[in-house]
Every structure is written in structure tokens, then in C-alpha cells.
Amino acid sequence: MERPTSSSSSDDDDDRQNLIEQNDRKLPTPRSTTTAFHIADDDIDDRNHRHHQQLRRRFTSLKLNDLFNKRSFVLFAIFVPLFVLILFFTTDIKALLFSPSVSASPFGSVSDKLRESELRALYLLKQQQLGLFNLWNQTLPNPNSTSNQSNSPQIPLLEDFKSAVLRQISINKDIQQVLLSPHRSGNSTESDFRDFGDFENPSLGDRCGILDQKFSQRRTIEWKPNASKYLFAICVSGQMSNHLICLEKHMFFAALLNRVLVIPSAKVDYQYSRVLDIEHINKCLGRKVVVTFDEFAEAKKNHVHIDKFICYFSHPTPCYVDEEHVKKLKGSGVSLSKLEPAWVEDVKKPSKRTVQDVQSKFSTSDDVIAIGDVFFADLEQDWVMQPRGPLAHKCKTLIEPSRLIMLTAQRFIQTFLGKNFIALHFRRHGFLKFCNNKQRSCFYPIPQAADCITRVAERANAPVVYLSTDAAESETGLLQSLVVVNGKAVPLVKRPARNSAEKWDALLYRHGMEGDGQVEAMLDKTICAMSSVFIGASGSTFTEDILRLRKDWGSGSLCDEYLCQGEDPNFVAENE
Asked: What are the strands, taking DSSP E only, across 169-242?
């Protein structure tokens, strides 16, 4: 049965009116009806639309007091003041409200920088005070010693004194820089701070400048040997460095006795031709003054005989030659005469000898003579040890590394170090016992050694240190961590292992000299001798040979010194 149109329209109006009036009330419960209706599709859509509008009006008309009941309001009233209190005690409100700039640096305020600079300046002042006290104590005589005691403290040499004063000036300059650093802005220059004092004083000069060796004041003699007279060199004590010093002294003896010097065979000694340029010596003298063993044997038609053995040392064994070395000499085809001491001389207490002493005791008409090992000989030391030696020649030095080693050292420096670098000979292996047996030990704890190296690095203003050492990695690693200048670690560079990608050592590789221990040792010496500043190991002949090269080449620096020179180790172990 169809529903009348008028009745349907009336029902729609009643429903719309009910929805409007009941916006603030609960939705009415739908009433049950017993009348059946037939509802068209259009009516259903119209009813859904009105229902959605009804729900939207209800949510938009909700009041605030409907959202909160009394319990919610109490909780809100308690929580808000508590939150304000926590915020007050955990936040620097003053800093937030009165910050001078929103874009201030996050790395700390100006006051923090000032405090840091003041603490750093106080530390430097303390270091300066200790340095000045140390200098003062060195210049004071020991009241408990007499003037004739050999162990009384020595007044520092002028160069040492100047170096110590310059070190304190350097520390003072660092203090000025530290105190001024917080006051610098991005647009300020160093000239803005000249009122605080001079940053550089030209009168101070180069703190680590080249040392004047006074070559023009050398005392020399001519080496003009008789071509048929020979001095057979014998060197047995120590390692390669000892043998090179022994050879250098043999050259002086040969010049005094007018003889040609015979370099030992590789069968009984080192293979000198791999590390030295033998012919270089002859070129420097302008005549044949040195021959190799092979050249000597050829001149003697392989009949090599030492006509006379005049021993410089008599104790502990004649000529300081043991039975093993005698066997090696005979095995190389050399026949010997009886060993006869020239005088009573002990290697442990050598006497000072003069040119006249040598010429009177060792001059002979025999063609071939030998005097034994003369490494410990004390003959005209001031003359022998002067820069470029006692012999007149036209070169910088007579005994120097071979050309291949010189070029390899230069290539290494160009690759890793650059012009301005410090070289450090840091001997450790077997040095602890050796040093502790001396009156003043020369073996320093790593932290003390690092402090001494740091001071030299500060003076030299060098960015890198070349490390020539036999120390274990545990020692060099600790040393590296402690050598710091102005908050920046100073790299300690060692020669790396062979790498085909690196070409600095290609010359040695191509000539089959790679891996030769003596070649590598001479390469180390050469690099050290070419450094701007050198720190050596006291008591080491390796160091002494480097210092000899630096003197002869004229590369010695005012800052060259032994490690921790003038200091005792702050801890020394007891002897066995």
C-alpha cells in the first residue's frame, strides 16, 4: 500500500525539527512501530544526509566544560605548577632571556675561553719558571766541591746559555699568544695587539740557524804517500760506525807515515764498497791515497804479506786483534809477521799521543805494515775531530755515503719530510745496561725523552721528526703519543717497508742493495745528517758519525744536541 505524499512530507518536517531542538541532548531512542512502510531509494539517501549533518553539528557545538569534568580539572591544576617549578630549576632562564646573541658559538662562552687561556698561560709560566731555575742552578758553583775536583759542575758554554735563554723567550711568546687569543675577533689582526709587546725581535735571529764551523781556521797536513808503501787497515771493534771511525784515524796515520791506505777485504770486514765511495777519497786528495784490497792484491800479484806488525795497543791483546780475526786474515790469503807492541797502551785507558810520538815509533822502511785497531787511540784529538778532518782536501768530507745512498736519502726526504725536519737517533736495544754502567746514565724513560724532544721541536718549529731507532713498537708508540706541540701531535716518521708503489728507494732495489743492513744503516745516517736539527744518543758511535757528517757538510745546527742533554734520567734502575 502506497503512502500518501502529504503524510511523508509532514514526517520529514517533524524529524528535521526534532534534530534542531535536540542538538544539546542525547540522541533519542528509536521508537518501535507496528506500521509497515515502503521506503523509496531517494528517501534513504535523504535520511543519511540529514543524519551526517546532525552528527557534525553535535561535535562542533561541544562546550569546553563538556571535555573536562571535575577530576580532570584538579589534575590539571596540580600538574601545571609542578611543570613550571621543574622548568625553573633545570633551565638557565637568565641566559635565555639575556643572551647577547642568538647565534653565539656552541663551543663555549667568552668567559670559558678566558678561563681556558688563563690556565694554559699559568702552565706555561710554571714551565718557564722551572727552566729558569734549571739555568740558574747550572750557573751556580757547587759549595761542596773544590776547584780541583774533576766532577765539579761546569759553567754552561755560551751557545748552551743562548739556547736556554731563547727557549724561555719562546715560552714567553707562547704565553702572550695564549692570553691574547680570546680577545681576537674575525676582523682583528696581529697589529691590533702590538701595544701588548713585540711578537718578534729581529735581534734574536734564527734560533736554530746553521752553526759556523770556522772551516778557514782548520789545521791540516798534506797526504802525499809513497806509492810503494802501504798501511794495512785493521778494524775489529764494534759495528760499522766504529769501523768508519777506525778507518778515518787510519787515514791520519797513513798521512803521517806517507803511506797508501789499504781498505780491508770483505772476507774479514764489512763490504765498504756498498756504503762508501772509495774513489771519492782519491778524487778529493787529487792522488791515489786509498786502494781496495783487490787492487792491493793485484799490485802484489796475490802475494799479500804484512811485513811488520807494529801494535798501537798492547792490552788486552796485541794490536787489539783476537785469534778469530787472525784466522780470517790468513783465510783471505794474508800472511802475517809477529805482532810487536810499539809501547804499553791499554784500550781502556789510552794515553794522549802526538804526531811526533807516532812518527818516531811507526816509521819504517818496510813496504807493508799494520798497526792494528786504532778506534780507541787518543792521537791529537782536537786536530782529528775538527770539521772536515785533519787532512787537506778539496771536498766537504772524505768518508761519506755512496752516491746511490745519497740520492735515495734525498728522494726519501722529498717524499716524506720536506726541507724543515728534525732527525732523532733514538737508540734503545742494549742501551739500558750500557748507559746504567756509566757514571751518568744516558737511558731516559719515554715520558722524559718525549718532553726533551718536544722542547727541541718547539725551538726548531719543525712539523715532523724523522725517527731512526731500534726501539720496540711499544716504546715508539708511547713516544709518539707524548710528543705534542701547541696541542698538536708531531709525527714521528720511520722508513716504511718496501712498497712497489713508492719510488724513492728504486735505485737501491735496481742495484740489488735492498735489505742490506749496512746499506739501510748508512741510509739512516744520511737522512739524519741532512736534517735541519739533529737529536743524538749520547755514547753512541752511530750518533757521532752523524755529527761528523753534519760538521763536514756544514749542516750542523745551533739546536743540535744529545737527547735530554744536561739532564739525568728521573729514574735509574739498580745494576745487577
From this structure: 226-232
pTM for the model stands at 0.68
Residue-wise burial string across 404-432, b where 16 or more C-beta atoms lie within 10 A, e elsewhere: bbbbbbebbbeebbeeebbbbbbbbeebe
Helix (H, G, I), strand (E, B) or coil at 322: coil
Q: What is the pLDDT of residues 472-498, one digit of tens each?
A: 999 999 999 999 988 899 999 999 988
Whether omega for the bond prior to residue 316 falls within 30 degrees of 0, making it cis, is: yes
Residue whose C-alpha cell reads 810487536 in the numeric block: 340
Question: Hey, CA dihedral for 320, 326, 332, 337, is it positive or negative?
Answer: positive
> Which letter does DSSP use for residue 272 in this model?
G
Nearest to 513 by CA among 405, 400, 399: 405
| 302 vs 435, more confident | 435
Q: Which residue has the cell 774513489?
A: 279
How far apart are alpha carbons 16 and 53 in whole angstroms? 11
The C-alpha atoms of residue 559 and residue 550 are separated, in whole angstroms, by 13
**How far is 432 from 424, CA to CA, in rounded Å?**
18
Among 291, 160, 170, CA closest to 561: 160
Residue in 224, 559, 533 with CA at minimum distance from that of residue 392:
224
CB 257 within 8 A of CB 342: no
Please give the full DSSP string across 471-510, using - where no structure is assigned: --HHHHHHHHHH-EETTEEPPEE-PPPP-TT--TTHHHHH
Helix, strand, or coil here: 468?
Answer: strand
> Which amino acid appears at position 236 of this protein?
V
Q: Dihedral angle at the C-alpha atoms of 231, 235, 240, 242, nearest 10 degrees?
A: -100
Mean pLDDT throughout 109-126?
74
Do residues 233 and 263 make contact, with C-beta atoms less than 8 angstroms apart? yes
Q: In whole angstroms, give the CA distance from residue 215 to residue 33.
A: 133
Nearest to 260 by CA among 214, 223, 286, 294: 223
Report phi then psi at 209, rounded to 5.
-70, 175
Alpha-carbon distance 518 to 509, whole Å?
Answer: 15
C-alpha 351, offset from chain centre: 40
pLDDT of residue 450: 96
Which string of DSSP letters, residue by residue, matches 256-268?
A: HTTEEEEPPPTTT
What are the residue ranges of helices labelled H in 68-224?
70-90, 93-98, 110-139, 158-180
Maximum CA extent, the chain: 161
Runs of H (alpha helix) within 61-109? 64-67, 70-90, 93-98
